[in-house]
Amino acid sequence: MSSQKYLNIQPNNVPSSGKISHARGNPIITVTLGRQDAVLDLSSVRLSGDINIWRDAAGTLHPDAGNAAELRGSHKLGIYSVIDQLVFRHAETKQVIEHIRHYGRFMASYLPVMAGMQDVAGHLSKTALIMPNYQAYRDNVIRNTTNSVFCIPLPSGLTLGGSKLPLDKIPLEIEIHLAPDSQFFYSSDATTTNISNAFYELSNVEVTCEVETGVESPDKGVLDFNSITSYFSTLESTNSIINFNLGLSKVLASFVNFVPANFINNLSQDGFLTYMPTKKPNGAGTGDGEVANLETISFLRNGERFPSAFEVESVYDTTTNATTVVDPQVIKGFLGSIIPEHQHTRTTASPLNTNRGFSGNQNALTGYRFIPDTGAVYGVGVLYDMLDSEGVDFSNAQFSIQMKNGLDDGNPISAYLFIKSKVVVAWDANMGVQVVS
Q1: Distance from C-alpha of 161 to C-alpha of 257, rounded to nearest angstrom
Q2: Per-residue pLDDT reduced to its tens digit, 41-93
Q3: What is the distance between the alpha carbons of residues 38 and 160, in angstroms, rounded to a whole number?
């Protein structure tokens, strides 16, 4: 007879102080669900704990209105901004089942697309510390004089698939790489003198999950799920091309988000910004930084436009229509690449946070930190298989995106590409485990 129970598992590598921080030399959290006669409900996995924000290297003083007043963090991501990489692997053989790099950048697009403003103002503000605007995050998390409590799921292809994992056949190890403090924080006025020693610190960290015991699992079986794979490229010209040999046979969708390259791991700027490519702002962050508009977008397979045989043209035109309004076709493709349109029920994306009315500087009245409804929601994406079936074979085909844009000042833009593809994990009592993509 089967029964359900909950497991609370502490990380393997917690220091004696019980406190974990990238600044103190603990950049990785590892949790092991060992071999046992139980089936893991992957959708039930939760990471919980406390986070403290300190303004001094000793970890004794919190930021306030008079000290480190310019310290900010990503209100759009909340606690998810501490995660840089997420890895699921076989606990014994160490075979990687899924590895999402640039996890914060992935969630910076995924969360606003999948959650509405009601979610942000409600349960997400409590469980994930996600706030509607930067002031709310500053007052409730950054300047909190006690610890902020969180309990979050870990969205990934494996955990979102609705599958169950037999732990007697595939013991699971979860590895979380923490983001550096220079990526987690940013300055409201581009100055870092007073916040250079600030760091975040986690405590009481544990993973909670639900397992079902007394369930007999077969000696052979397969588990299929939609895996997330990440890539990185840089745009520096008015005719920018992203090229990759994916080596994946069942690609379902892809999307890319953008941020100026000098924003990454830079206390002066928000490294989790997901806005249009922008030109270089001035040193004070008060001028320039205007949008480098994407005028045409083409997805290609082996050099041919695919799946659409035409370019997606922007409503913006340098000479005839220098408008600030949103590109509906681009945004529709971006949202659909994350979740198919017929399944999409809520989002924070709107004409308020997807338009061209803002810039890549933080102090001007049009600065990116003033974008409403949790901040900028912009990206370029395409859905290959709306039925979520077999996808498109890129195992021996080149994947490309070609974008004509306004990057005429040589300001490098980092492009983070995420591919959703179908992956199969097969296990055999005699042959072991195999991951097929």
Answers
A1: 24
A2: 999 999 999 999 999 999 999 999 999 999 999 999 999 999 999 999 999 99
A3: 20
If residue 256 lies in a helix (H) or strand (E), which one and from where to where? strand 251-260
Check: CB of residue 202 under 8 Å from CB of residue 15.
Answer: no
Question: Residue 299: CB partners within 8 Å, gap ≥ 6?
Answer: 254, 305, 306, 307, 308, 382, 400, 401
Locate 274 and state its tokens: 């997901």
C-alpha to C-alpha distance for 155 and 165, rounded to whole angstroms: 16
End-to-end Cα spacing for the chain: 35
- Name the nearest CA neighbour of 174 among 199, 153, 190, 193: 153
Residue 287 phi/psi, 5° resolution? -150, 175
Q: What is the pTM of this model?
A: 0.95
DSSP secondary structure string, 144-180?
A: -SSPEEEEEE--SHHHHS--EEETTTS-EEEEEEEPP
How many beta carbons lie within 10 A of that of residue 162, not counting itself? 9
CB-based burial, 387-418: b 16+ in 10 Å, e otherwise: eeeebbebeebebbbbbbbbbeeebebbbbbb
Q: Which conformational region is residue 387 in: left (phi greater than 0), alpha (psi within -120 to 50 degrees), or beta?
A: alpha
Query: Residue 15, Cβ neighbours under 10 Å: how many?
Result: 11
Beta-bridged to residue 230, according to DSSP, are 418
CA–CA dist 236, 238 (Å, integer) = 7
Is cis: bond before 307, omega within 30 of 0?
A: yes
User: Dihedrals φ, ψ of 125, to 5°?
Assistant: -70, -25
Question: What number of CA atoms fall less than 13 Å from residue 285's CA on the CB side?
Answer: 18
- DSSP 8-state symbol, 207: E
Condensed to tens digits (0 to 9), the pLDDT of residues 342-373 reads 889 999 999 999 999 998 887 778 889 889 99
- The length of the chain, given as a count of residues: 437
Q: Reduce the secondary structure of 269-316 to three states and give it as a string.
A: CCCCCCCCCECCECCCCCCECCECCEEEEEEEECCEECCCCCCEECCC
Biggest CA–CA distance in the chain, Å, is 72
Nearest to 300 by CA among 291, 290, 288, 308: 308
Contact assessment for residue 254 and residue 347, using Cβ atoms and an 8 Å cutoff? no
